[in-house]
Design a protein that fits this description.
heterodimer; A: alpha/beta; globular; B: alpha+beta; Arc Repressor Mutant, subunit A
C-alpha cells in the first residue's frame, strides 16, 4: 500500500471522506514525517496539536454523518509570513523572533475554516527577501534534492518560499501556502519539482501577511500537482473587506473546471525570454513544453514582450522602495525585539534594534529602497520604474490580442548549491528574470514540473495568463503535467 | 481695507501670512481603521491593530471621513477631485507606529476654494490652495516615569483635514478672522467640532515680511498654534522678529518654529537643512480614491445653509448687521435663532432678544445655547406675548427670569402669577388720580413748565399698577390728566 505521506491533497481529502483512513491517521503520519526531517530545516515551528485538532474535528464530523468541509483533515504547512493566532510568526527574522500575533491572517483563517490543519510554520527567506532561502535568521532550508553527480552538495530549495517547497517535495506535507512578490512561489516550486500558482493580484487577501512589497505581494498555494493547487487556491482566495486591494469577485470552482483540452487556445512564446547563457537543457525543455501544448490542441504563436529586459531593474527599485517603508514599523517600540544600549536615546534605540533585528539582505533592500525614494533620486528611479511597470503591463495586454496564455521557463537554471550565489546579490536577483514581469503586471502565473536536467534536478515550466484567468493557467499546466509524467522524487537521505 | 503696516527702524513693512489648518474630522472611527475616536479616553484604549501597526495590518479608507472632507470642500466652493490618491510620508518617531503617515501630497481630495472674511467692516476673499486628508499621530507622555517616555496611540490614525490657505492674509486681524471663519464653516458643515483647546483644530502659521510692493520674503512656519488669539499673537511676534533680524543686517532662514505663549516668543525648532526627507510615494496598500457622481450629489445635498448665506438672509429679514454677525458666528446660535423664527417670532425683535437677553442670561448661568433652559419654542411664545401687548418689556424680563428658573412656558407663568399687563383705562385712571393727588406739589411744578417730571409720574403710576400697566396707555392717560386737566 502507498504510504499516506505520499498522497496529495485530493487523495487525502477523498480518502478521509470515504473512510479509507482517518484524518487522525493522516495527521499522525505527517507529524512523524515532519519530526524525522528536521535536517532539512523546513519548519521554524512545528504545531502537531493544531493538525491533530483539525483531524479530530474531521473524524468527528464524519462519524456524525456530516458533510465534510473541502479540506477536512488535510494537514498543510503555513509559510511563516502568515500571522497565526497564538503561534509564533517571525517572517524568518530575528526582529520578530518570539512574536505571537493575537490575530489570524485571512488566508490562514480561510484554510482552517475549510477544515485544514497546520503542521507548522515554514521557513523562508527573511521577510520573503531572497531566492534561495539563505537569508532566514533561522538558518537556510536544505532541498531534499541532490545532484546525481556523486557529490552531496546541499542545494537551495529556492526562495523565498523555500520551506514550503522543501517540505512538499520531501513529503512532509501535501501542500503549503506560499507568497509570491517576484517569483517566490514559482521559482522554489521549479527548483523542487512541485507545482505552485501565483494568482491574479487581489485574489487572496494580504491581511495578516507580513508585508514585503504591498503592490506585488500575493499569496498562493504550492502542492505536488495542479489539481491540488486548484483545491488549495479555492480555499485561500476570496474578497476581504480588510484589504483595500482585494478583488470583489466570487471564487471560481477551479478544481471542477480543470480541463487539459487546449483546442482553440493560443499559446504565445515570448521571444524576449530567450536570455543569454540559458542552459541548453532549459531551452530544450521549453521546446518540449511547446510540443506538449500542441499535442493538447493549442496553437503556438510567437509574441513579443519588448520591455521584458527592464522588468528586473524596475522590480528591484519598486519592491525595495515599498519594503523600506513597510519595514519601518519594526522599530523596537511596540513589539518584536528591542535593543536598548545603556543610555541610548530614541534614535539610537532604532539604530541598534534595526541593525540587530534585520539580516544583511533585508538591510540591503531597505537601503536601496530608501535611496530610490530620496529627494533628488525619486524621479530618476521610482518614477521611472513605475513607468516601466506600466509598459510591462501594456506588453502583456498587447500579447493578449494574439494569444490566451504564455509559456516560458520558470527559472534560468536548476537549483544551485547553497552558498553558490549568496555572495553575489546580482546573480541571485537574476533568478527572478522570468517570474518578475508577471508579478509587475499582477497577472496569474504557475510553475509546473517539466523534467530533470543532466544532474537529475527538476526544471519547471511557467504558464502566464490573463488577469483573472487562473482557470486557463491551471488547465494549460495540467496539460503539461499529464504529458510530462513527472514522477521523479528526491531520495530520502535525511 | 485699511492696510496694516509695521513701522520698522528703516521704514514700513508688510506682513504676508498663510495658514495650514489641521482639523480633526468628526467621525466615530479613524481614517483607516475601525477604532473609536473618543476624546479624553484612557491612554491606548482607542487603538486597533492597524493603528498600532501590527505586522500584516492594512489600512481601509473610512468613507465617512472622505465624505466630511468633500462636504467641507464644497462649503468653500472648492474644486472636488473625483480622483485622488494617498501617499506615505516616511519618518521615524515613537508616536508614529507605521513609520509613515498616510497623507495626500501629489493628488489631494480637494483643490482650490475661497473663504470670505470681514475685518473692520470690510470683506476680503482669502484663497484656499487645497484640502487633503491624512492620519494624525499618537502622543508621547514624558511625565509618567522618571527616565522613560510613554506613548498613547489613541490619536494615532485619527482623520485630519489639512486646509492650506494661499498667502493672502496681510495682518494679524485677517489671520484671526480667517481662522474664526474657517472654524465657523467647519462647525456648520459638521465636519469638525472646532474644539481648539482639545486639539481638534490647530494651525501652522506661515509668516514673512516685505517692503510693500516687493516680492515675498523668506517665510517661517510656526507649528501647532491652537487658538485664534495665539495665531494673531504669533503673526505679530514673528513679523516683528523678522523685521528686527532684517533691519539688523541679518537674513531670515526658512525654518520651523514653535510659539511659546508664556514667554510671548517664537523659537526655532529645526532649519530647512535639518528637515526630514519624507520620501513621499503612493501608498501601495491603497487604490486611488474614485468618487462617483451619486456620492458627490449626496455630499452636496447634505450641506446646510452656510454662515454667509444665513447672514444675508437675516439681513433681508431686517436684522441689524451687528446682530446678524453675532447670530451666525456660532452654528448653535444660528440654529436657535432659526428655530425661533420657525416658531413664529419676528426677526428683528427676536434677534435683539437673543443677543441681549438670552446671551446675557446664558453668560450669567455659564451655559451654552445648546442647553439653554429656555427652548426656542418657549422663547417664541414669550416674544409673541410681547408683540401682542400682553407683556410689557419689563414684564417680559420678569417672566423670562422665571422661565430660566422653572423651565415653565411663559403663558403658564403669566396666568399663575397674574403678570398680564393691563390696558384697562378705568383701573389706570384710578391709580393716576391717586398719584396726582399725593403729589400735588409736583403736579404744580410740572404745569409751570418742568416737563421732565413726566417720567416721574409714569414711574409712580407703573409702580402703583405693580408694573402690569400697558406703558402706552399709561402715557396717554397721564398726558390727558396733566395737560388736559
Amino acid at each position: 500500500m502507498t504510504q499516506i505521506t505520499d498522497l496529495g491533497v485530493a487523495a487525502l481529502r477523498d480518502g478521509i471522506r470515504t473512510g479509507e483512513f482517518s484524518a487522525r491517521e493522516v495527521a499522525d503520519a505527517f507529524i512523524v514525517r515532519v519530526s524525522q526531517a528536521r535536517q532539512l530545516n523546513a519548519f521554524i515551528v512545528e504545531t502537531p496539536e493544531h493538525a491533530i485538532a483539525a483531524a479530530r474535528e474531521a473524524d468527528a464530523a464524519r462519524a456524525a454523518g456530516e458533510t465534510l468541509k473541502p479540506l477536512a483533515g488535510v494537514p498543510i504547512g503555513m509559510k511563516d509570513l502568515f500571522c497565526t493566532k497564538g503561534v509564533q510568526t517571525t517572517a524568518a527574522s530575528h526582529m520578530l523572533e518570539g512574536f505571537k500575533p493575537e490575530y489570524e491572517s485571512t488566508v490562514s483563517q480561510k484554510l482552517w475554516d475549510a477544515g485544514a490543519g497546520m503542521l507548522g510554520k515554514l521557513n523562508l527567506d527573511q521577510f520573503a527577501m531572497g531566492s534561495s532561502n539563505e537569508t532566514s535568521y533561522f538558518g537556510n532550508v536544505i532541498s531534499p534534492w541532490r545532484r546525481q553527480d556523486g557529490g552531496n552538495a546541499p542545494l537551495a530549495p529556492g526562495g523565498s518560499s523555500g520551506g514550503s517547497s522543501s517540505a512538499i517535495s520531501a513529503r512532509l506535507c501535501p501542500a503549503a501556502t506560499g507568497t509570491d512578490t517576484g517569483g517566490s512561489i514559482r521559482q522554489p516550486a521549479a527548483f523542487t519539482g512541485i507545482a505552485g500558482i501565483k494568482p491574479t493580484y487581489g485574489r487572496c487577501s494580504r491581511w495578516g501577511v507580513v508585508a514585503f512589497a504591498s503592490s506585488l505581494d500575493q499569496a498562493g498555494p504550492m502542492a505536488r500537482d495542479v489539481r491540488d493547487c486548484a483545491i488549495m487556491l479555492e480555499a485561500m482566495a476570496g474578497f476581504d473587506a480588510k484589504d483595500a486591494t482585494s478583488l470583489q469577485l466570487d471564487v471560481p470552482k477551479w478544481e471542477q473546471g480543470l480541463n487539459p483540452d487546449l483546442r482553440g487556445k493560443k499559446v504565445g512564446i515570448p521571444k524576449e525570454y530567450r536570455v543569454d547563457a540559458m542552459p541548453g537543457e532549459i531551452e530544450a525543455l521549453w521546446q518540449q513544453g511547446i510540443d506538449w501544448l500542441k499535442d493538447a490542441g493549442a496553437e503556438i504563436v510567437e509574441v513579443s514582450l519588448p520591455h521584458t529586459k527592464y522588468a528586473l531593474p524596475a522590480y528591484y527599485i519598486i519592491a525595495p522602495a515599498e519594503a523600506s517603508s513597510n519595514l519601518a514599523r519594526y522599530d523596537g517600540v511596540r513589539y518584536g525585539m528591542r535593543e536598548l544600549p545603556e543610555g541610548a536615546n530614541l534614535q539610537e534605540m532604532y539604530a541598534a534594534t534595526r541593525a540587530a533585528g534585520f539580516g544583511p539582505e533585508v538591510q540591503r533592500r531597505i537601503l536601496i529602497g530608501t535611496y530610490v525614494l530620496s529627494a533628488g533620486f525619486y524621479d530618476a528611479y521610482y518614477t521611472q520604474a513605475q513607468k516601466v511597470r506600466t509598459l510591462i503591463a501594456r506588453d502583456f495586454e498587447r500579447a493578449w490580442l494574439d494569444c490566451d496564455l504564455l509559456l516560458t521557463p520558470t527559472a534560468p537554471s536548476a537549483a544551485f548549491a547553497l552558498g553558490e550565489k549568496s555572495a553575489d546579490p546580482l546573480a541571485m536577483y537574476l533568478n527572478d528574470v522570468f517570474t518578475v514581469p508577471s508579478s509587475l503586471a499582477g497577472i496569474p502565473a504557475m510553475s509546473v514540473p517539466g523534467g530533470l536536467d543532466k544532474d537529475g534536478l527538476p526544471l519547471g515550466l511557467q504558464i502566464i495568463g490573463k488577469p483573472l484567468d487562473e482557470q486557463g493557467v491551471l488547465n494549460a499546466s495540467l496539460a503539461i503535467e499529464q504529458r510530462a509524467g513527472f514522477t521523479a522524487r528526491p531520495g530520502q537521505w535525511w | 481695507m485699511s492696510e496694516f503696516r509695521i513701522k520698522g527702524a528703516t521704514g514700513e513693512w508688510e506682513v504676508v501670512i498663510g495658514l495650514e489648518v489641521h482639523a480633526q474630522v468628526t467621525s466615530n472611527a479613524k481614517l483607516f481603521s475601525g477604532a473609536a475616536t473618543a476624546f479624553g479616553a484612557e491612554p491606548n484604549t482607542q487603538v486597533s491593530l492597524v493603528d498600532a501597526a501590527m505586522p500584516g495590518m492594512l489600512p481601509v479608507p473610512n468613507r465617512e471621513c472622505i465624505r466630511q472632507a468633500v462636504r467641507t470642500g464644497m462649503a468653500i466652493e472648492a474644486k472636488i477631485n473625483k480622483g485622488s490618491r494617498f501617499d506615505r510620508k516616511n519618518y521615524f518617531y515613537a508616536d508614529l507606529p507605521q513609520g509613515y503617515q498616510i497623507s495626500q501630497l501629489y493628488h489631494p481630495l480637494v483643490g482650490e476654494g475661497t473663504i470670505e472674511i470681514e475685518v473692520e467692516g470690510e470683506t476680503k476673499t482669502i484663497g484656499v490652495e487645497r484640502i487633503h486628508v491624512e492620519q494624525d499621530a499618537g502622543k508621547l507622555m514624558h511625565d509618567q516615569h522618571p527616565t522613560r517616555s510613554y506613548v498613547d496611540l489613541n490619536r494615532s490614525g485619527v482623520a485630519l483635514m489639512e486646509i492650506v490657505s494661499k498667502p493672502d492674509m496681510r495682518s494679524p486681524a485677517e489671520a484671526g478672522a480667517y481662522l474664526s471663519k474657517l472654524r465657523s464653516i467647519l462647525r456648520y458643515v459638521g465636519s469638525c467640532d472646532g474644539n481648539m483647546d482639545q486639539g481638534s483644530m490647530r494651525a501652522d502659521v506661515n509668516v514673512s515680511v516685505r517692503r510693500p510692493g516687493e516680492p515675498f520674503g523668506t517665510r517661517t512656519e510656526t507649528k501647532n498654534v491652537n487658538s485664534v488669539r495665539f495665531v494673531m499673537q504669533t503673526v505679530e511676534i514673528e513679523a516683528l522678529r523678522q523685521i528686527d533680524v532684517i533691519e539688523s543686517g541679518g537674513t531670515i532662514v526658512q525654518e520651523t518654529r514653535l510659539f511659546d505663549p508664556d514667554k510671548g516668543e517664537t523659537r526655532s525648532m529645526r532649519s530647512k537643512e535639518d528637515a526630514h526627507d519624507y520620501r513621499y510615494f503612493p501608498d501601495p496598500d491603497l487604490l486611488p480614491l474614485e468618487l462617483d457622481d451619486a456620492f458627490l450629489d449626496e455630499c452636496r445635498a447634505s450641506l446646510p445653509e452656510l454662515p454667509d448665506a444665513k447672514r444675508a438672509r437675516y439681513l433681508s429679514l431686517g436684522v441689524t448687521p451687528y446682530n446678524a454677525a453675532v447670530l451666525t458666528a456660532e452654528v448653535e446660535a444660528a440654529r436657535y435663532f432659526d428655530a425661533l423664527l420657525e416658531a413664529g417670532a419676528k426677526a428683528p425683535a427676536a434677534a435683539n432678544w437673543v443677543t441681549s437677553e438670552l446671551f446675557g442670561a446664558l453668560n450669567r448661568l455659564g451655559r451654552d445655547i445648546e442647553d439653554s433652559p429656555v427652548s426656542a419654542t418657549q422663547a417664541a411664545q414669550l416674544l409673541g406675548l410681547v408683540a401682542e401687548g400682553t407683556l410689557s418689556n419689563t414684564l417680559a424680563k420678569q417672566v423670562f427670569e422665571i422661565m430660566l428658573e422653572t423651565g415653565d412656558d411663559p403663558a403658564k407663568i403669566v396666568e399663575e402669577r397674574g403678570l398680564k399687563q393691563t390696558s384697562d383705562t378705568g383701573a389706570i385712571e384710578a391709580e393716576i388720580a391717586k398719584v396726582l393727588d399725593a403729589n400735588a406739589d409736583k403736579v404744580a411744578e410740572y404745569r409751570s413748565g418742568k416737563d421732565k417730571l413726566f417720567g416721574f409720574f409714569v414711574g409712580q403710576t407703573m409702580k402703583a399698577m405693580a408694573g402690569k400697566a400697558n406703558p402706552g396707555v399709561v402715557n396717554e392717560l397721564l398726558k390727558k390728566a396733566l395737560d388736559g386737566g
